[in-house]
Amino acid sequence: RAVVEAVHRLDLILGNKAAYQEVFKPENISLRNKLRELCVKLMFLHPVDYGRKAEELLWRKVYYEVIQLIKTNKKAGESPGAALTPCPSAPQHIHSRSALECAYRTHLVAGLGFYQHLLLYIQSHYQLELQCCIDWTHVTDPLMGCKKPVSASEKEMEWAQLACHRCLVYLGDLARYQNELAGVDTELLAERFYYQALSVAPQIGMPFNQLGTLAGSKFYNVEATYCYLRCIQSEVSFEGAYGNLKRLYDKAAKMYHQLKKCETRRLSPSKKRGKDIKRLLVSFMYLQSLLQPKSR
């Protein structure tokens, strides 16, 4: 009941037109912290029945929806004292050195710290051995002697393993959002978290979708296309990857037809090489789009 009530109150705040001005007020941060504590308690009291639901609520209501609000509200950050122009590498609405940007950065850092702690706690509580999968593991002290047997069912252990996988995906997402801000280069960190999530649960394709988003338009979208295809071909695919892939194929078709229209003029060897590489990659992408089944 307390979780439902906290979620309802947070929804009312986010539904407000001036939500971006309210979301980082102390009382609302306190409300999110309370919801986070309740969700964690629910996870470990009833992991099989409510663990997954509690995880989803915690991520969406405490972190993700706040991030999306800041990223999509173009007028946020225009408070007194904000810089006149936004930093080019930051989301358009966040003005460099503004109070909003500071609060947003703190929100992301706090999220990273929380999910790293939760990842360690789940490993410790269920005595999971993930040393062969990830480098952020709970290490037991060999001097303590024999471990106590875990009093958890097979379904609880399965939840714990997949919860670790999802923690790593969330950590990757938070690092990816950090990477969008000025003065922060966390692309490799985000990539590392996503690949470790794949190590924990290789049958789940979601991290490949996130890697595709992280890749952006590198190599004329070839890298992102590869990641989306890997996601789709996974045993447990992610529905959003189909739309992401179609968007890239549509871009490839436009670029291909634009290249064909361009007049061929004499270029220096170095420029000609760059043009040839672009033509090759764009043509390859366009060919991929033509070879895709039309079922979706």
What do you see in this structure?
- The chain has 296 residues and is an all-alpha fold.
- It folds into 2 domains: 1-74 and 99-140 and 151-202, Serine Threonine Protein Phosphatase 5, Tetratricopeptide repeat, CATH 1.25.40; 204-295, no CATH class.
- The protein contains 11 helices and no strands.
- Helix 5 (99-126) packs antiparallel against helix 6, helix 8 (206-215) runs antiparallel to helix 9 and helix 10 crosses helix 11 (269-291).
- The chain is globular, with a radius of gyration of 23 Å.
- It starts with a helix and ends in a 5-residue tail after the last helix.
- Residues 74-92 have low confidence and may be disordered.
- Keywords: Nonsense-mediated mRNA decay.
Short characterization:
By secondary structure, the chain is an all-alpha fold.
Task: Describe the secondary-structure layout.
Blueprint: H1 2-14, H2 19-22, H3 26-45, H4 47-72, H5 99-126, H6 154-179, H7 187-200, H8 206-215, H9 222-233, H10 240-261, H11 269-291
Name the helix and strand elements from N-terminus to C-terminus, one letter apiece.
Answer: HHHHHHHHHHH
Number of separate strands: 0
Q: What would the CATH topology of the largest domain be?
A: Serine Threonine Protein Phosphatase 5, Tetratricopeptide repeat
Proportion of residues in extended strands: under 5%
Mean pLDDT over the full residue set: 88
Biggest sheet descriptor: none
